Amino acid sequence: MSEQNDRNARNEQPENRLRRELPAEVPAPAPPAGQQAQEQPQQPLTGRQRLVKGLWPPRFTRAQLIVALLLFGLGFGLAVQVASNSDTDSALRGARQEDLVRILDELDSRTQRLEDEKQGLEKQRQELQTSSDQAAEARRQTAEKERQLGILAGTVAAQGPGITMTIEDTKGTVQADMLLDAIQELRAAGAEAIQVNGVRVVAGTYFTDSGQRVSVDGNKIKAPYRFKVIGKPQDLEPALNIPGGVVQTLEKEQATVTVERSDKIVVDALRQAKRPDYARSSSQ
Questions:
Q1: So which residues are the signal peptide here (predicted)?
Q2: pLDDT value, residue 94
Q3: Topology of domain 97-271, CATH
Q4: pTM surpassing 0.70?
Protein backbone atom coordinates (compact mmCIF):
# COMPACT_ATOMS: atom_id res chain seq x y z
CA MET A 1 0.00 0.00 0.00
CA SER A 2 2.84 2.32 0.80
CA GLU A 3 4.55 1.45 -2.42
CA GLN A 4 1.32 2.17 -4.31
CA ASN A 5 1.13 5.64 -2.75
CA ASP A 6 4.70 6.42 -3.63
CA ARG A 7 4.06 5.33 -7.23
CA ASN A 8 0.96 7.57 -7.44
CA ALA A 9 2.88 10.53 -6.08
CA ARG A 10 5.58 10.14 -8.71
CA ASN A 11 3.03 9.90 -11.48
CA GLU A 12 1.14 13.07 -10.32
CA GLN A 13 1.20 16.14 -12.63
CA PRO A 14 3.76 18.85 -11.72
CA GLU A 15 1.17 21.68 -11.68
CA ASN A 16 -0.94 19.75 -9.17
CA ARG A 17 2.03 19.33 -6.93
CA LEU A 18 2.88 23.06 -7.23
CA ARG A 19 -0.73 24.07 -6.45
CA ARG A 20 -0.75 21.95 -3.30
CA GLU A 21 2.59 23.30 -2.10
CA LEU A 22 1.67 27.02 -2.50
CA PRO A 23 -0.40 28.69 0.24
CA ALA A 24 -3.99 29.66 -0.48
CA GLU A 25 -3.37 33.49 -0.36
CA VAL A 26 -0.15 35.41 -0.62
CA PRO A 27 -0.22 38.60 1.55
CA ALA A 28 0.52 41.92 -0.27
CA PRO A 29 3.79 43.66 0.58
CA ALA A 30 3.50 46.27 3.37
CA PRO A 31 3.89 49.95 2.26
CA PRO A 32 6.71 52.08 3.66
CA ALA A 33 6.24 53.74 7.06
CA GLY A 34 6.25 57.33 5.62
CA GLN A 35 3.55 56.44 3.08
CA GLN A 36 1.37 55.00 5.88
CA ALA A 37 1.66 58.28 7.76
CA GLN A 38 0.65 60.29 4.67
CA GLU A 39 -2.38 58.17 3.96
CA GLN A 40 -3.77 58.68 7.46
CA PRO A 41 -6.63 61.25 7.54
CA GLN A 42 -5.71 64.75 8.91
CA GLN A 43 -7.13 65.84 12.25
CA PRO A 44 -9.56 68.83 12.02
CA LEU A 45 -8.13 72.23 13.19
CA THR A 46 -9.46 73.83 16.35
CA GLY A 47 -11.04 77.30 16.33
CA ARG A 48 -7.94 78.91 17.84
CA GLN A 49 -5.68 77.27 15.22
CA ARG A 50 -7.91 78.48 12.40
CA LEU A 51 -7.84 82.03 13.84
CA VAL A 52 -4.04 82.05 14.10
CA LYS A 53 -3.72 80.61 10.59
CA GLY A 54 -6.00 83.34 9.23
CA LEU A 55 -4.16 86.20 10.98
CA TRP A 56 -0.58 85.14 10.51
CA PRO A 57 1.27 85.82 8.37
CA PRO A 58 -0.56 89.15 7.88
CA ARG A 59 -1.75 90.02 4.39
CA PHE A 60 -2.31 93.74 3.68
CA THR A 61 -3.69 95.38 0.61
CA ARG A 62 -2.58 98.78 -0.60
CA ALA A 63 -5.83 100.38 0.55
CA GLN A 64 -5.43 98.92 4.04
CA LEU A 65 -1.88 100.28 4.28
CA ILE A 66 -3.06 103.78 3.27
CA VAL A 67 -5.86 103.70 5.85
CA ALA A 68 -3.41 102.53 8.51
CA LEU A 69 -1.02 105.42 7.73
CA LEU A 70 -3.88 107.93 7.86
CA LEU A 71 -5.06 106.58 11.19
CA PHE A 72 -1.52 106.75 12.55
CA GLY A 73 -1.16 110.38 11.46
CA LEU A 74 -4.53 111.26 12.99
CA GLY A 75 -3.61 109.57 16.25
CA PHE A 76 -0.26 111.34 16.38
CA GLY A 77 -1.90 114.72 15.78
CA LEU A 78 -4.43 114.08 18.53
CA ALA A 79 -1.65 113.07 20.91
CA VAL A 80 0.26 116.30 20.19
CA GLN A 81 -2.91 118.37 20.65
CA VAL A 82 -3.66 116.68 23.96
CA ALA A 83 -0.09 117.27 25.14
CA SER A 84 -0.31 120.95 24.16
CA ASN A 85 -3.61 121.36 25.95
CA SER A 86 -2.15 119.61 28.98
CA ASP A 87 0.74 122.09 29.07
CA THR A 88 -1.68 125.02 28.83
CA ASP A 89 -3.90 123.53 31.49
CA SER A 90 -0.87 123.00 33.74
CA ALA A 91 0.17 126.63 33.33
CA LEU A 92 -3.34 127.89 34.11
CA ARG A 93 -3.71 125.42 36.97
CA GLY A 94 -0.64 126.90 38.62
CA ALA A 95 -1.81 130.51 38.20
CA ARG A 96 -3.26 132.50 41.04
CA GLN A 97 -6.93 133.30 41.22
CA GLU A 98 -6.39 137.00 40.56
CA ASP A 99 -4.30 136.11 37.47
CA LEU A 100 -7.08 133.90 36.12
CA VAL A 101 -9.60 136.67 36.72
CA ARG A 102 -7.35 139.12 34.85
CA ILE A 103 -7.05 136.74 31.88
CA LEU A 104 -10.81 136.25 31.74
CA ASP A 105 -11.37 140.00 31.92
CA GLU A 106 -8.98 140.53 29.02
CA LEU A 107 -10.77 137.94 26.90
CA ASP A 108 -14.11 139.55 27.71
CA SER A 109 -12.71 142.95 26.75
CA ARG A 110 -11.46 141.70 23.39
CA THR A 111 -14.83 140.11 22.68
CA GLN A 112 -16.59 143.35 23.60
CA ARG A 113 -14.31 145.38 21.29
CA LEU A 114 -15.12 143.12 18.37
CA GLU A 115 -18.81 143.38 19.14
CA ASP A 116 -18.60 147.18 19.31
CA GLU A 117 -16.81 147.29 15.98
CA LYS A 118 -19.49 145.08 14.43
CA GLN A 119 -22.25 147.32 15.76
CA GLY A 120 -20.45 150.43 14.46
CA LEU A 121 -20.25 149.00 10.96
CA GLU A 122 -23.91 148.02 11.03
CA LYS A 123 -24.82 151.53 12.17
CA GLN A 124 -22.91 153.06 9.28
CA ARG A 125 -24.71 150.81 6.83
CA GLN A 126 -28.11 151.74 8.27
CA GLU A 127 -27.28 155.46 8.12
CA LEU A 128 -26.34 155.16 4.48
CA GLN A 129 -29.53 153.27 3.70
CA THR A 130 -31.93 155.57 5.59
CA SER A 131 -30.37 159.00 5.04
CA SER A 132 -32.37 161.36 2.82
CA ASP A 133 -29.16 162.81 1.40
CA GLN A 134 -27.08 159.71 0.89
CA ALA A 135 -24.32 161.60 -0.94
CA ALA A 136 -23.75 164.00 1.99
CA GLU A 137 -23.83 161.12 4.48
CA ALA A 138 -21.33 159.18 2.38
CA ARG A 139 -18.98 162.21 2.30
CA ARG A 140 -19.27 162.62 6.07
CA GLN A 141 -18.47 158.97 6.70
CA THR A 142 -15.62 159.12 4.20
CA ALA A 143 -14.06 162.09 6.01
CA GLU A 144 -14.44 160.29 9.35
CA LYS A 145 -12.89 157.15 7.94
CA GLU A 146 -10.03 159.19 6.49
CA ARG A 147 -9.32 160.70 9.91
CA GLN A 148 -9.35 157.26 11.53
CA LEU A 149 -7.07 155.82 8.87
CA GLY A 150 -4.74 158.79 9.29
CA ILE A 151 -4.40 157.98 12.98
CA LEU A 152 -3.68 154.33 12.20
CA ALA A 153 -1.21 155.27 9.45
CA GLY A 154 0.56 157.76 11.73
CA THR A 155 -0.02 160.78 9.48
CA VAL A 156 -2.35 162.47 12.00
CA ALA A 157 -1.70 163.31 15.65
CA ALA A 158 -4.00 161.74 18.21
CA GLN A 159 -4.94 162.15 21.83
CA GLY A 160 -7.08 160.21 24.27
CA PRO A 161 -6.97 158.01 27.37
CA GLY A 162 -4.26 155.42 27.63
CA ILE A 163 -1.07 154.45 29.41
CA THR A 164 2.59 155.30 29.53
CA MET A 165 5.01 152.39 29.92
CA THR A 166 8.63 153.10 30.82
CA ILE A 167 11.34 150.42 30.60
CA GLU A 168 14.61 151.09 32.44
CA ASP A 169 17.44 148.93 31.09
CA THR A 170 20.62 149.64 33.05
CA LYS A 171 22.09 146.19 32.26
CA GLY A 172 21.58 146.49 28.51
CA THR A 173 19.72 143.18 28.35
CA VAL A 174 16.53 144.36 26.63
CA GLN A 175 16.50 143.35 22.97
CA ALA A 176 14.44 144.31 19.97
CA ASP A 177 12.24 141.22 20.01
CA MET A 178 11.14 142.01 23.59
CA LEU A 179 9.99 145.49 22.57
CA LEU A 180 8.21 144.02 19.55
CA ASP A 181 6.40 141.58 21.84
CA ALA A 182 5.22 144.54 23.90
CA ILE A 183 3.87 146.24 20.77
CA GLN A 184 2.02 143.10 19.71
CA GLU A 185 0.50 142.66 23.16
CA LEU A 186 -0.67 146.27 23.22
CA ARG A 187 -2.22 145.96 19.77
CA ALA A 188 -4.03 142.80 20.82
CA ALA A 189 -5.37 144.68 23.86
CA GLY A 190 -6.88 147.42 21.67
CA ALA A 191 -4.14 150.06 21.35
CA GLU A 192 -5.11 152.59 18.66
CA ALA A 193 -1.99 154.78 18.54
CA ILE A 194 1.54 154.10 19.82
CA GLN A 195 4.82 155.91 19.78
CA VAL A 196 8.15 154.78 21.25
CA ASN A 197 10.77 157.41 22.13
CA GLY A 198 9.39 159.81 19.54
CA VAL A 199 8.94 157.26 16.76
CA ARG A 200 5.38 156.57 15.59
CA VAL A 201 4.49 152.90 15.42
CA VAL A 202 2.45 151.87 12.38
CA ALA A 203 1.46 148.60 10.72
CA GLY A 204 4.82 148.17 8.99
CA THR A 205 7.01 149.11 11.96
CA TYR A 206 9.99 146.83 12.63
CA PHE A 207 12.49 146.54 15.51
CA THR A 208 16.14 145.53 15.11
CA ASP A 209 19.13 145.26 17.41
CA SER A 210 21.80 147.85 16.64
CA GLY A 211 24.84 147.24 18.82
CA GLN A 212 23.95 148.23 22.38
CA ARG A 213 20.82 149.99 21.15
CA VAL A 214 17.56 149.20 19.42
CA SER A 215 16.39 150.62 16.12
CA VAL A 216 12.75 151.34 15.29
CA ASP A 217 12.20 151.63 11.55
CA GLY A 218 15.88 152.48 11.20
CA ASN A 219 15.83 155.12 13.97
CA LYS A 220 18.17 154.30 16.85
CA ILE A 221 16.67 154.71 20.31
CA LYS A 222 18.16 154.10 23.73
CA ALA A 223 16.91 153.28 27.22
CA PRO A 224 14.79 154.26 28.97
CA TYR A 225 12.21 153.09 26.43
CA ARG A 226 9.01 155.09 26.81
CA PHE A 227 5.81 153.82 25.23
CA LYS A 228 2.91 156.28 24.86
CA VAL A 229 -0.22 154.30 24.05
CA ILE A 230 -3.78 155.46 23.38
CA GLY A 231 -6.50 152.98 24.21
CA LYS A 232 -8.67 151.76 27.05
CA PRO A 233 -6.40 151.79 30.14
CA GLN A 234 -8.46 149.06 31.83
CA ASP A 235 -7.52 146.74 28.97
CA LEU A 236 -3.96 147.85 28.21
CA GLU A 237 -2.43 147.61 31.68
CA PRO A 238 -3.75 144.11 32.56
CA ALA A 239 -2.57 142.82 29.16
CA LEU A 240 1.00 143.76 30.06
CA ASN A 241 0.83 142.21 33.54
CA ILE A 242 -0.61 138.78 32.72
CA PRO A 243 1.47 135.82 34.01
CA GLY A 244 4.35 135.19 31.65
CA GLY A 245 3.58 138.43 29.81
CA VAL A 246 5.61 141.47 28.86
CA VAL A 247 6.34 142.81 32.35
CA GLN A 248 7.45 139.46 33.79
CA THR A 249 9.64 138.75 30.75
CA LEU A 250 11.41 142.11 31.03
CA GLU A 251 11.84 141.79 34.78
CA LYS A 252 13.54 138.42 34.26
CA GLU A 253 16.10 140.33 32.18
CA GLN A 254 16.68 142.65 35.18
CA ALA A 255 14.80 145.52 33.56
CA THR A 256 12.46 147.79 35.51
CA VAL A 257 8.98 148.39 34.09
CA THR A 258 6.48 151.01 35.25
CA VAL A 259 2.98 151.44 33.79
CA GLU A 260 0.90 154.56 34.47
CA ARG A 261 -2.69 155.21 33.44
CA SER A 262 -3.77 158.61 32.17
CA ASP A 263 -6.95 160.25 30.91
CA LYS A 264 -5.02 162.11 28.25
CA ILE A 265 -2.15 160.70 26.24
CA VAL A 266 -0.84 162.70 23.29
CA VAL A 267 0.73 160.84 20.40
CA ASP A 268 2.15 163.54 18.15
CA ALA A 269 4.99 161.80 16.32
CA LEU A 270 4.02 161.74 12.64
CA ARG A 271 4.93 159.64 9.62
CA GLN A 272 5.07 160.85 6.06
CA ALA A 273 2.40 159.37 3.84
CA LYS A 274 4.11 157.03 1.41
CA ARG A 275 2.67 156.54 -2.02
CA PRO A 276 2.71 152.86 -3.03
CA ASP A 277 4.84 152.03 -6.05
CA TYR A 278 2.64 149.33 -7.49
CA ALA A 279 -0.66 149.06 -5.60
CA ARG A 280 -3.58 151.08 -6.94
CA SER A 281 -7.20 151.36 -5.90
CA SER A 282 -9.35 148.77 -7.62
CA SER A 283 -12.19 151.32 -8.01
CA GLN A 284 -10.20 153.47 -10.44
A1: none
A2: 62
A3: Alpha-Beta Plaits (3.30.70)
A4: no
